[in-house]
Automatic annotation (TrEMBL):
<comment type="pathway">
    <text>Metabolic intermediate biosynthesis; chorismate biosynthesis; chorismate from D-erythrose 4-phosphate and phosphoenolpyruvate: step 3/7.</text>
</comment>
<feature type="active site" description="Proton donor">
    <location>
        <position position="103"/>
    </location>
</feature>
<dbReference type="InterPro" id="IPR001874">
    <property type="entry name" value="DHquinase_II"/>
</dbReference>
<feature type="binding site">
    <location>
        <position position="80"/>
    </location>
    <ligand>
        <name>substrate</name>
    </ligand>
</feature>
<dbReference type="GO" id="GO:0009073">
    <property type="term" value="P:aromatic amino acid family biosynthetic process"/>
</dbReference>
<feature type="binding site">
    <location>
        <begin position="104"/>
        <end position="105"/>
    </location>
    <ligand>
        <name>substrate</name>
    </ligand>
</feature>
<feature type="binding site">
    <location>
        <position position="74"/>
    </location>
    <ligand>
        <name>substrate</name>
    </ligand>
</feature>
<dbReference type="GO" id="GO:0008652">
    <property type="term" value="P:amino acid biosynthetic process"/>
</dbReference>
<keyword id="KW-0028">Amino-acid biosynthesis</keyword>
<dbReference type="InterPro" id="IPR018509">
    <property type="entry name" value="DHquinase_II_CS"/>
</dbReference>
<feature type="binding site">
    <location>
        <position position="87"/>
    </location>
    <ligand>
        <name>substrate</name>
    </ligand>
</feature>
<feature type="site" description="Transition state stabilizer">
    <location>
        <position position="18"/>
    </location>
</feature>
<keyword id="KW-0057">Aromatic amino acid biosynthesis</keyword>
<feature type="binding site">
    <location>
        <position position="114"/>
    </location>
    <ligand>
        <name>substrate</name>
    </ligand>
</feature>
<dbReference type="GO" id="GO:0009423">
    <property type="term" value="P:chorismate biosynthetic process"/>
</dbReference>
<dbReference type="InterPro" id="IPR036441">
    <property type="entry name" value="DHquinase_II_sf"/>
</dbReference>
<comment type="similarity">
    <text>Belongs to the type-II 3-dehydroquinase family.</text>
</comment>
Length: 147
């Protein structure tokens, strides 16, 4: 069974209370439950994590490489400026592992500073704008790659 780390960056622990008009009313616990279920249905072993700490997120990407795990990554605000995160994400794909960048909202439809991703160019692909379904679609894409 393919192992997948679903990694979430800053402020995603506040899902359900942070700008529900943008991010919805479901919580990180709801996302965790859904992602694990979607993964199991697709034959994936999914673990969901969240941190507000850039260094911890970088460490988790290193762990994915070392443990040969695919990654679904919502870098959140780090998307736009974290070259450390970009370099760690590049290690995942350079190792031949899939890394799918996801976003709940569509960054291209938001403020101009959100329209640039330093992670996107090193990701296997990007899925954005579908709320929690962005994660479901990413997991389905990963499952399709492992067949």
């Amino acid at each position: 069974m393919t192992r997948v780390l679903v990694l979430n960056g800053p402020n995603l622990g506040r899902l359900g209370v942070r700008e529900p008009e943008v991010y919805g009313s479901a919580t990180l616990a709801d996302l965790r439950e859904s992602a694990v279920r979607w993964g199991a249905e697709a034959g994936l072993d999914v673990e969901v994590r969240q941190t507000d700490d850039e260094a911890e997120l970088v460490g988790w990407l290193h762990e994915a490489v070392d443990q040969r795990a695919a990654v679904v990554l919502n870098p959140a605000a780090f998307t736009h400026y974290s070259y450390a995160l970009r370099d760690a994400a590049a290690q995942v794909t350079t190792a031949g592992l899939a890394l799918i960048e996801v976003h709940l909202s569509n960054p291209m439809a938001r403020e101009s500073f959100r329209r640039h991703s330093v992670v996107g160019p090193v990701a296997t692909g990007t899925i954005a704008g579908f709320g929690f379904d962005s994660y479901r679609l990413a997991l389905l894409a990963l499952a399709g790659q492992t067949r």
